[in-house]
Amino acid sequence: MKKTVLFLIGLISSIGFAQQTYYNDVNLTLTGTQLRDALAVKVSNTHSNSLSYSEIWTATMVTDLDPNNSNNVLLLYGWENGSDGDVTNDVSRGKNNNGGNVGDWNREHTFANSLASPDLDEFGTNGPPYSDAHNLRSSDVQRNGQRGNRKFAAGSGNSGTVGTAWYPGDASLGGTDWRGDVARITMYMYLRYGAQCYPTFVADGTINSVDANMIDLLLEWNAADPVSPYEDARNAYHENIANATAQGNRNPFIDNPRLATVIWGGTPAEDRWGIFTTDTELPTVPMNLMVSNETGNSIDVSWTASTDNIGVTGYDVYVGGVFDQTVTTTSATVSSLAPLTTYTFTVTAKDAAGNASAQSTGVDGTTLAGGGGGTDSSIYLSEYMEGSSFNKALEIANYTGATVDPNDVANTYTLKISTNGSATWNSTYTFPVGAMINDGDVYVIGNTGLAVCTGVVDDSNDSITGFNGNDAIGLFKNDVLIDIIGTLGDGTTFASNTTLIRKATVSIPNTTYIASEWDTSASNTCTNLGMHTQTLSVATFETETFSIYPNPTNGDIVYIQSKNNTEISEARIYDITGKLVVQQANPTNEINIQGLQRGLYILQLQIGNQTVNKKLMKQ
């Protein structure tokens, strides 16, 4: 027998299945714990009348009336009509037979008082949470005593103990199903009182994957035992504070059990409003992805909003096809990136029903040099000699404007080698104690068997200078790759019996090996080993859409010349660590750099939906 309750004259005139106006100011497009929290605010703010524990008697005699006998109240956990002589299992009793004696009914704390943390009566018995009317139900005194403070657990048949736990009862033996009532009350108490009333305190079972404070058994009961008109009547009474013993708020899970599914997942419950189960339309794919504000370790990604028949609730951002974060706006800052690395960003849109769009077309963004902070993040590999026999050496250049200590605790440098095409780094070179690289100078490391060049620092155990022409070599700062010769895991011979010299126009490291950044010389060439030149000039950019001049400059103004009169909406200048130091809207044809110190910078021009990066040297 399922609970069937007639509409109570004077209590409510009608109960429909449309969304109640009570929820008009709740964002029902939210999902998961965001929807949980929004509903929690609603039921807390509208709980305007604090009932005393004695007033609960009066309220229950109205809200819990037996539809077949208006002189009786329905008894939680009961299932029998009183004909078997056992009063403890009665489903109905005279509404005035309330008290604490055998044959009486009393007020059952469905969420047991002592299972809350702290107890529900921490602030006394008059007022919430102890006398919350949504938690208190009429129940036989002795049956209530049998339940005591036992936690709820799975079972079958009529109500009773299951080991040390309590099963509220179902209709499988012809009795009354109370599982949904218990589940929806427990969920309400969690909304209303938060950490004091976690469902895990009052029920046993599998922990929910969305919310570690929820028990999946309650979601199953909520779906298996639909809402009765009896529960609807209680909700309608307590919202209307014109009723003397109404408290002003509602239990959302009675109004729509599907809310629990939207929040915590699990077995889909009835959608009484019809707003969650009919939506199968996917949101449109996010379009016009753009990257901006590139730094050494972060990139901003933005896109145009997707559309949906109900409403888009959020966007999932992916980096290289791997999920990174969820946002509710049309932009995101992706951080913890490696310097001088190109990443591909894609975005999907999702709606309240859990529908997700396809991933957007990817957009590439490249971080600037640095990312680890400090002024020395731009030292880089400037020469590589892979000669005959043991004639092998590496050169590192410093154009940072300051002396670099490779063993500085804040900025520690190492070299690593990957041998014979290995996809992992096999050996590490640590700079000797006291090693210093002056500004504008180089540091040379040579194999102990090097015979053709002089003035180098020996690699005492040849940990890094035992390379061959197919061994990738990386320069690391704080164990993050910032520069590389060769390609990790490739195995291709890229420089055998060859000397590579970094071109003078290259001024920052690169985590991708690009052969065009290097000039080649014959095997065993030592001519340039121990010295390096770095230059930047306007000629470097002659083939591009824009040119900047003078560059290098010692003045306070840099001029921009456009070859096709393209409008620049913004100019941004970053230092070598990726910090934004100048930002100028609509720069026309000049940028004020009066406040910049001597050093290398990245000038970024915003042109429509694209950005163009230029190197800028302030002398």
UniProtKB/TrEMBL annotation:
Where is composition skewed (Polar residues) in this entry? Answer: 89-99, 136-147
Please give the InterPro entries that the UniProt record associates with this protein: Endonuclease-I, FN3_dom, FN3_sf, His-Me_finger_sf, Ig-like_fold, Secre_tail
- Residues forming the Fibronectin type-III domain are 285-370
What is the protein's name according to its record? Endonuclease
Q: Which UniProt keywords apply?
A: Endonuclease, Hydrolase, Nuclease, Signal
Q: Which Pfam families match?
A: Endonuclease_1 (PF04231), fn3 (PF00041), Por_Secre_tail (PF18962)
- Signal sequence extent: 1-18
Q: Name one GO molecular function term.
A: endonuclease activity
Q: Which Gene3D superfamilies match?
A: Immunoglobulins (2.60.40.10)
